[in-house]
């Protein structure tokens, strides 16, 4: 499995609750080490856990690192057909997921909210170091087939490392600010499970160690799950036993459609029954992003340079000390690519024992804590962009970032970002998300919005993309030069593969913007 996306900040608490049960969260059985398809998607040789205060079992670190370094590259495209895959039959770069999968995997209504809630705590080892361990799992799944059980074990083996990725020299403390982040585990078949994490200090007297509540779900709605974690944290301060009925009620409720609300009843001792409303945003493609965090830390021109590097699928490294900042900003950068999907290694917080893997020769978008800056700079990397989110600057660049995007469109996006950045106190977070997204969606509408006109359909209903005719139809030489590079990327190939499967557009919002753009052009011609 492949790691990806951490979420960011702690969203305001939102009530949520279910029927009361006496059964507590159940302890998870000990897991036998086995190769774990977890947290990453690069390639390379396995390595043992890095020495340091946070202990990670050598078998676990080696297997996860092995998978991180396993290069899984998507086969490229030729005119109307794909190149043959490698001899071993395995694509050389693991995708985070196809664009069309967003609709079915991340945004499907009616599914369970989550698959698991796990609690990860730090266990002191005989040598004085701490190792993250799963203390509880809800629900405990029974009667699994052999393959399902092995997959579950791999999942549960990977989770602790990403709940404590920073490798700090943990000591019991009396205070600890709660933090929210997330990661994504991607199977070789492209299916994804997202881990939404809240790291907090349990209530009590005296010194204590933090613990992580991690909700595993295949649904991508980060604001909603952040609010659910607020409810989990509120109940944790009362008793672990109060969390179980809340999560049971949540699990029994269907995931709402965009714009719809689910109401959950939850009983809290001494407070009575609460009605908790969870509302899903209307715009599904924006429900997993917070652009204000990016605008607060980076200037509009730097955001465009980062966007340009991401569009060409280069290596991107983001540095910050807080897990929440890394999580939020990296997720925002990936969201700028809509309707396309980053199709390579995507790890908002790289565990310390996997830091050496950032020198893998494939594209990646990763977040690393600032304390590891020197170690990052020592890695041999080509075509890499290293971004300091603390100081709001680029530490290392290729040098051509300002020239990648067509200048006219780049200036229009820059003007739009500057305008919204200067007026960010006027807009709500949701409004700013929509305005920023609109600028980047329009960029793709104007450059590749004519793609459907260049898909040739056969009698059996399958389409073939005519790449040469598509590029030739672009009148601007500057725009055509950029598009000829862009069509060679994995993200464009994934998008077109979906488009070739059905005449019905996979990304309805993008298609809506294309239609509006052509209507506006027609209106200008007629007036």
From TrEMBL:
GO cellular component terms listed in the entry, alphabetical order: cytosol; nucleoplasm
Record GO terms (molecular function): guanyl-nucleotide exchange factor activity
Calcium found in the keyword field: no
UDENN domain ranges (all copies): 115-506
Domain of life: Eukaryota
PROSITE patterns to which the protein is assigned, alphabetical: DENN (PS50211)
Keywords: Guanine-nucleotide releasing factor
Pfam families: dDENN (PF03455), DENN (PF02141), uDENN (PF03456)
Region: Disordered, residue numbers: 18-56, 71-95
Keyword Lipid metabolism part of the UniProt annotation: no
Record-given protein name: DENN domain containing 2D
Organism: Coturnix japonica
Gene: DENND2D
């Amino acid at each position: 499995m492949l790691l990806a996306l951490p979420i960011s900040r702690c969203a305001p608490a939102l009530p949520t609750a279910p029927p009361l049960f006496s059964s507590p969260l159940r302890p998870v059985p000990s897991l036998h080490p086995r190769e774990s398809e977890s947290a990453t998607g690069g390639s390379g040789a396995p390595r043992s856990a890095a020495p340091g205060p946070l202990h990670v079992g050598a078998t676990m670190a080696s297997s996860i690192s092995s998978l991180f370094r396993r290069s899984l590259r998507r086969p490229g495209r030729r005119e109307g057909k794909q190149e043959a895959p490698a001899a071993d039959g395995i694509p050389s770069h693991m995708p985070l997921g196809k664009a069309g999968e967003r609709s079915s995997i991340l945004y499907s209504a009616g599914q369970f909210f989550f698959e698991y809630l796990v609690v990860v705590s730090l266990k002191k080892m005989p040598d004085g170091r701490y190792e993250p361990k799963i203390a509880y799992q809800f629900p405990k799944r029974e009667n699994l087939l052999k393959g399902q059980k092995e997959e579950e074990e791999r999942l549960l083996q990977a989770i602790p490392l990403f709940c404590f990725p920073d490798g700090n020299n943990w000591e019991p403390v009396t205070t600890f600010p709660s933090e929210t982040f997330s990661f994504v585990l991607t199977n070789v078949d492209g299916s994804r499970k997202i881990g939404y994490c809240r790291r907090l200090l349990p209530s009590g007297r005296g010194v204590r160690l933090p613990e992580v509540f991690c909700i595993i779900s295949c649904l991508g709605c980060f604001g909603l799950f952040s609010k659910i974690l607020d409810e989990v944290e509120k109940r944790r301060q009362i008793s672990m036993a109060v969390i179980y009925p809340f999560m049971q009620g949540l699990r029994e409720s269907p995931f709402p459609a965009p714009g719809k609300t689910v109401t959950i009843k939850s009983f809290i001792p001494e407070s009575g029954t609460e009605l908790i409303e969870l509302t899903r945003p209307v715009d599904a493609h924006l429900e997993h992003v917070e652009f204000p965090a990016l605008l607060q830390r980076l200037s509009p021109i730097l955001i465009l340079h980062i966007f340009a590097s991401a569009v060409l699928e280069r290596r991107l490294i983001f540095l910050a000390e807080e897990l929440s900042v890394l999580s939020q900003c990296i997720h925002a950068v990936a969201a700028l690519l809509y309707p396309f999907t980053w199709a390579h290694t995507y790890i908002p917080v790289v565990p310390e024992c996997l830091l050496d893997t950032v020198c893998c020769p494939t594209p990646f978008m990763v977040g690393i804590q600032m304390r590891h800056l020197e170690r990052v700079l020592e890695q041999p990397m080509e075509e890499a962009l290293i971004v300091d989110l603390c100081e709001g600057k680029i530490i290392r660049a290729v040098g051509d970032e300002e020239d990648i995007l067509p200048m006219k469109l780049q200036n229009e996006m820059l003007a739009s970002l500057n305008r919204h950045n200067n007026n960010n106190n006027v807009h709500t977070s949701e409004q700013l998300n929509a305005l920023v997204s609109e600028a980047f969606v329009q960029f793709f509408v104007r450059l590749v919005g004519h793609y459907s006109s260049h898909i040739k359909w056969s009698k059996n209903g399958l389409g073939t993309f005519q790449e040469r005719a598509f590029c030739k139809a672009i009148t601007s030489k500057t725009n055509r030069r950029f598009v000829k590079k862009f069509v060679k990327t994995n993200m464009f190939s994934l998008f077109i593969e979906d488009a070739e499967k059905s005449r019905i557009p996979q990304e309805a919002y993008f298609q809506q913007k294309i239609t509006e753009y052509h209507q506006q052009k027609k209106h200008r011609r007629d007036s």
